[in-house]
Amino acid sequence: MQSRKGQALSALVFIGSIMAMLYAVFYIQQLSVAIGIYSGIYATSRAYNVTLSATDIGFISNLQSLGLALQLSYLMLALALMMFAFAVLQLFQSRRGASSMALAGASIFYAALAYILETSFNFAEPYIYFAVAIAGAILTAVPALYMAAADKPARGARMSRNISVDPLTPYSNMLKLSGELGAKMHGNLRILDMHFDTNGLRNLAAMLKGNERNYTSVSVLTRRDRLDSTLMKECRDFSDELRNSGVEFSIRAMNGEDAAMQHERLMLDGSHAYKIPPLNIINKKSEHIVSIARNEAAKRFNYVWNRGTKLDNVQQA
Fold it and tell me: How many domains does the chain have?
């Protein structure tokens, strides 16, 4: 699921890309007709030794340049198709930074090429359809640049290697954790915490509050005995809340063997990994949050996750 603003912007981009494609196809069709007519006039005059008027001679003299215009118009169509492909991709993405920048670049290049073609190769009367090309480029470029700018802070944030927590300031600690972790991690957030319970969920919610746009999903692993009826209900409510922000939430219970083997708690995203205190006391525990090797942490998390039990299956058991 995506946020409503993201869906609206993606819809504008999609409409703009269609407008760009329609103009490119229309331009190629009109240009091809003009080339065919002028070529026919030239071939007829040669075959029947007809003396052409000055106007006809002017048209025929443009044949070579119109051939170049046709080649450039194929490039314009390729750009329009690229814009359409990125627009379709964004309809199904939550994170749009990289594709938005590519889309904005293609849109600007498309608009520039359409302008060059319209002003340099005047093969017929000016077409009001040129406004469709510019409108399509604007509808794709402006929302794309906005989405890229909105995505940049989360993707470009620098992470601290270690974060200290003072047990005497639990409230301030939570604000610090929100700024140092919640605001700077991004993408798929994964947490392995054997002690994760309702207090852990509430601290997680506080850490993510206001930072939801950074994430596409949040996945939590905990021990089976922690998933009581209260935590299950709160997890479902939290999942619904995050889904409204375009973030998928899921929680699984570790099997007994994996739970017994886990002695550290992990938090990781696509670029970083940390060893953390239990989330239910993360703002009260006098312990450093320490950066660790991300690839090893991801391998360990994925192994336990794939062997875990989904929330619905825990409830049915």
Answer: 2
Same domain, 255 and 151: no
- Give the predicted TM-score (pTM) of the model: 0.52
SS3 category, 15: helix
Looking at 156, 175, 193, the residue that finishes a domain is 156
pLDDT at 217: 93
Q: Which residues contact 97 (CB under 8 A, 6 or more apart)?
A: 147, 148, 151, 152, 155
Q: Using a CB cutoff of 8 Å and minimum separation of 24, what contacts does 174-181 make?
A: 174/203, 174/206, 174/207, 174/283, 177/207, 177/282, 177/283, 177/289, 178/206, 178/207, 178/208, 178/209, 178/210, 178/211, 181/207, 181/267, 181/274, 181/289
The model's pLDDT over 147-168, given as tens digits with 9 standing for 90+, comes to 877 665 444 444 556 677 777 7
- Cβ-in-10-Å burial (0-12, 13-18, 19+) of 191 comes to buried
Question: What's the start-to-end Cα distance of the chain, in Å?
Answer: 29
Structural domain for 256, as ranges: 162-316
CATH of the domain at 221: 3.30.870.10
Q: Report the phi/psi class of residue 253: left, alpha or beta, with left for phi > 0 and alpha for psi in -120 to 50.
A: beta
Q: Which of 136, 156, 176 is the last residue of a domain?
A: 156
Q: Which residue has the higher pLDDT, 224 or 285?
A: 224
Statement to judge: residues 167 and 312 lie in one domain: yes
Do 127 and 81 share a domain, yes or no?
yes
CB-based contact 134:114 (threshold 8 Å):
yes
Task: Quickly state the pLDDT bin for 122 (edges 50, 70, 90).
Answer: low
170 and 233 fall within a common domain = yes
Both structure tokens of 106: 């293609």
